[in-house]
């Protein structure tokens, strides 16, 4: 086990005191909240979801769709020798799968603790601690970029992220990312029947914020409608090739937060945007 991993993350009462609200949250505040939240919650996240994710599988979301089956980055055999950037990589499970196909992945995440889990699991994927909105790479460094629920749902300015991804991609490179399906915003985030009735406007883009007693955000999620996401992709310098809405498979009986077989059979839970860099 990696030495550094054995260090305890200082416990923080931020979440215990957190109040959930809806209010604006800018770029810097959202990033700061995400870094803190993922540092405090990485252990629990990996403990709860690590076995479903697998150490070296590429899973696009709670439905369990795997890249090995979906081929959204291209057929697995075509990945050999390609430079791939994984954004919001967490413990770098997807990057390990990419490396096993012969690709050269780099796993980037904002959270130090998530990357410590990547070290704990092991493998020789390069890890980079950085914000998706400010990528520390030269122009044209990668053939492909991908993200399974990493960064995009949590940033205030997704176009800024997409422009950065475009900059570090080579012409024609693919950018494939998954996010919570926008329709879920209108429903309570509950796996049971209470999660089946519309409770909020799909069109209300006011971010979901959990804040501490001083009013500082400790968790932020940003909502974009499907139309917003398409416009963001185009504004970022990409064309949209496909929008995949994985259906809930029969084999998957696992609940993951508000994602469940009950809801998954009725409404989509994940949206995967398959984009290509314009020249
Ligand atoms: C839901 S997890 C997904 C991690 C991994 N892809 C998986 O499937 O387990 C979201 C990840 O995005 C990272 N993240 C959030 N905001 C980010 C940002 N602005 N830049 C880079 N990473 C970010 C978090 O630290 C976290 O590891």
TrEMBL record:
Keywords: Methyltransferase, Transferase. It holds the Pfam family Methyltransf_11. The keyword Methyltransferase applies. Its EC number is 2.1.1.-. Residues 85-177 form the Methyltransferase type domain. One of its GO terms (molecular function) is methyltransferase activity. Residues 1-10, 19-40 have a biased composition (Basic and acidic residues). InterPro entries: Methyltransf_11, Methyltransf_Superfamily, SAM-dependent_MTases_sf. This is Class I SAM-dependent methyltransferase. It comes from Streptomyces flavochromogenes. The lineage of its organism: Bacteria, Bacillati, Actinomycetota, Actinomycetes, Kitasatosporales.
């Amino acid at each position: 086990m990696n030495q550094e991993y054995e260090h305890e993350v200082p416990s923080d009462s931020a979440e215990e005191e957190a109040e959930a609200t809806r209010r604006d949250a800018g770029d810097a505040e959202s990033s700061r909240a995400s870094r803190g939240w993922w540092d405090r919650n990485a252990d629990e996240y990996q403990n709860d979801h690590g076995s479903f994710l697998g150490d070296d599988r590429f899973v696009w979301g709670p439905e369990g769709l795997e890249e090995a089956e979906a081929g959204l980055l291209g057929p697995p055999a075509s990945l050999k020798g390609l430079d791939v950037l994984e954004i919001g990589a967490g413990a770098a499970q997807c990057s390990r799968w990419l490396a096993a196909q012969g690709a050269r992945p780099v796993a980037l995440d904002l959270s130090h603790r998530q990357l410590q889990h990547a070290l704990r699991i092991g493998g020789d994927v390069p890890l980079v601690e950085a914000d998706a909105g400010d990528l520390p790479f030269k122009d044209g460094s990668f053939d492909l970029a991908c993200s399974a629920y990493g960064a995009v749902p949590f940033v205030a300015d997704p176009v800024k992220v997409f422009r950065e991804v475009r900059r570090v991609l080579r012409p024609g490179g693919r950018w494939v990312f998954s996010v919570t399906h926008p329709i879920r915003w209108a429903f309570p985030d509950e796996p049971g029947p209470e999660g089946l009735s519309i409770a909020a406007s799909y069109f209300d883009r006011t971010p979901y914020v959990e804040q501490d007693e001083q009013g500082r955000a400790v968790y932020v999620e940003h909502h974009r409608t499907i139309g917003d996401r398409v416009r963001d992709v185009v504004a970022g310098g990409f064309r949209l090739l496909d929008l995949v809405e994985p259906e809930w498979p029969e084999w998957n009986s696992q609940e993951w937060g508000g994602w469940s077989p009950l809801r998954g059979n009725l409404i989509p839970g994940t949206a995967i945007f398959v984009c290509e860099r314009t020249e």
